[in-house]
Automatic annotation (TrEMBL):
Entry-linked InterPro entries: GrpE, GrpE_CC, GrpE_head
GO CC term (a single one): PAM complex, Tim23 associated import motor
Name of this protein: GrpE protein homolog, mitochondrial
Keyword list, A-Z: Chaperone
Length: 233
């Protein structure tokens, strides 16, 4: 295109010799050529930039870097391993917590049993001494004949008898508040596991093996189960 413009310029110069007015159009021609030169250089510049851009941009469908892929896989494997380790630690902590709770509950139960056992053991000696005093009161009450109690001239003796009986019942209530219940098996069948025989005596009209009289009462409790002394037939 540039060569064509040059040839046209030469032809104009040759033809302009007999016509001087035609020379005025030359600057116009030279001004119209400069845009032609500008546009002709732009495609060349773009052509120069396109290979550089093509060199920087990887083609589509090109495989990723194997080393980068391997690194990502290794990082994922490490994360999965850490996750599994944390799950194991959580499971172990849960088992330890359950065992600790079970041990604590067992300790509470053992402590409660030992506390109750110590309480019963401390009460045992006191209760036996108190029951012995109740036996003495029972012997005192049985030693007074019934006709003397009901006699009109024995009001003082009757008052004393009733006072001793009131004291005996008060002591039995004290034992009852601590879970100790005295019992008198008079008239029941003899039980060697609960009774202690003093002697045997034949009594007409009584069933053999029955308890005729109780000299020392026993007691029914969780730990206190002392034998009562009986006279059996």
């Amino acid at each position: 295109m540039l060569r064509t413009a040059t040839q046209s310029l030469r032809a104009l110069r040759t033809a302009a010799a007999p016509r001087p007015a035609a020379l005025n159009s030359l600057p116009l021609l030279s001004h119209t050529l400069s845009p032609t030169r500008h546009y002709s250089a732009q495609p060349a510049q773009e052509a120069t930039q396109e290979p550089a851009a093509a060199a920087q941009t990887p083609p589509q469908g090109e495989a990723a870097d194997p080393s980068a892929t391997k690194g990502n896989d290794q990082a994922l494997a490490d994360l999965n391993k850490q996750l599994e380790d944390h799950k194991k630690q959580i499971a172990e902590h849960k088992v330890r917590r359950l065992r600790t709770l079970a041990d604590f509950e067992n300790l509470q139960k053992i402590s409660a049993r030992e506390k109750q056992a110590a309480k019963d053991f401390a009460l045992q000696s006191f209760a036996k001494d108190l029951i012995s005093e109740i036996d003495v009161l029972n012997l005192a009450l049985r030693s007074i004949p019934e006709d003397r109690i009901t006699a009109a001239d024995n009001a003082d003796l009757k008052g004393l008898y009733e006072g001793v009986g009131l004291l005996k019942r008060g002591l039995e209530k004290v034992l009852g508040r601590h879970g100790i219940v005295p019992f008198d098996p008079t008239g029941e069948q003899f039980d060697p596991n609960r009774h202690e025989a003093l002697y045997q005596a034949p009594v007409p009209g009584k069933e053999p093996g029955s308890v005729l009289e109780c000299q020392e009462i026993g007691c029914a409790s969780l730990r206190l189960s002392g034998p009562s002394h009986k006279i059996i037939h």
